[in-house]
Specification:
By secondary structure, this protein is of the alpha+beta class. It has helices spanning 2-13, 23-33, 62-73, 104-107, 119-122, 134-152, 249-268, 280-292, 337-356, 434-450, 460-472; strands spanning 36-37, 58-61, 109-113, 166-173, 176-178, 190-199, 203-214, 217-232, 310-312, 317-322, 361-370, 379-390, 393-403, 410-421, 428-430, 454-455. It has 11 helices and 16 strands. Strands 2, 3, 4, 5, 6, 7, 8, 10, 11, 12, 13 and 14 form a 12-stranded mixed β-sheet that branches. Strands 1-16 form a two-stranded antiparallel sheet. It has a two-stranded parallel ribbon with strand order 9-15.
Length: 473
Amino acid sequence: MMLCRLARGFGTALSRRSYHSTARRRRLLAISCTNFACQQMPRSYTLDNGPKVKSDHRSGTMVEVARIIREQSGVDVGYHTVPKPRDHLLQHQPKREELPPRTMLDSHTTAILPLSSSELIRESYVNHLGRVRLGRIMEELDMFAVWICHRHVKLPKLPKGVPLPYTFVTLLVDKVEFTNLERLQVNQDIEISGHISWAGRSSMEITIYVRQLAHGQYIDVTKAIFVMVARNATNTGAAPINPLEVGDETEKLIWEQAEKRQKVRKSSAMDSVFNSPPREHEQSIMYEILKRTTPANSMDLNKRVLPPKCRWMEDSMQSTMIAPFPENRNAQNTIFGGYLMRQAVEISFIMASIYLGDRPILKCISDISFMHPVHVDRFLQLTAHVVYAAQNYVQLMTVAQIWDAKSGKVQTTNVFYLTYQADKVLDEVLPRSYREMLWYVHGRRKLLAALHLQPEYPDPIQEGKESSNVIST
């Protein structure tokens, strides 16, 4: 019931100052804004429910994990402007039929962020408020996902001492939901565990859990789903991986859930206002925004007015340009996906803080896709936009672009969606241009998904009946 009331609140936030308008306006608002269902989105999950793989395997600290990955990949310490050749490793790439099956239990492991061991370590994970930097956590999760790939892939014919002839690339990150952040302590160890939950010919889904032991009790922090791709040693083509053999009933359930996520990813690829027109009820929302921000009886096409307690979307953004450095590179001198995620989380936190005028709480990061690699000799621009705000929630879209200084070419590499919560009712953010309208609609979808709310689409027949009833009264 609480979520249902909240969903209706998001709708009325669009026009909560316009209830005294005409009957037609009331009908449009009723149809386009208040008709939500409290249903879980297909890509949602909770931390404390569902089957889990468990094992006693420990990988030490994340520093040790990073060292082992570097050693197994044959990456030497020291930066070279031209990466060392790895062509000789291509001869060791196996055929798929040579690879033995692996189980979820084979890849399962746990690693530690040892925040309790020293003040020096904690300084890398604490923000100015004395709380844990969630951007750093996302960066560690990306490294851990690569480690799970290393644990899954086993090559029986690989000669001893020869580096693993693979490159593992982050393809996407599903929804990452955070909980218990107010209880998360910067002076207690954080435990990261996970395993392969699905595998194709060269792609792997990895499920990762984060928790912390505080006052003798474990608290859940987040569950993350990564999709990684195995590439050959020179990152010029796909590489086969070991098939995943499903074991007991627990692993079967995990596999079935992962299969559903795979289907949803494929079907939702086109479910974007950037690929298809807004739905009918969303077009009604766009029309209402246009009416609210256009002076009455004005024929000026460019004249727009900002309603009270609202802000323009074009004024609600922050941008930064950074130069990625070699310390954040892989063997091909491209920047780690975890570094990009950390930067995106941190600039979005800045924008959300400015918009709220207070400290925001990160609730969800969703649908991170990695479109192009970021080379160490390029510049990276990150721009955080507030694209939707309702009640005490704000939805941000952070765009990462690569700048090539020599050619002047600019290329979008990532888009991040982050949902923040405030402890007060926020101003609305409103679009001026049509493209901003599309961002607004897209941001609204992301916020509803982050809060497990799914719109019900109006029935045209029922809409006609409601229209007749309104006219008759």
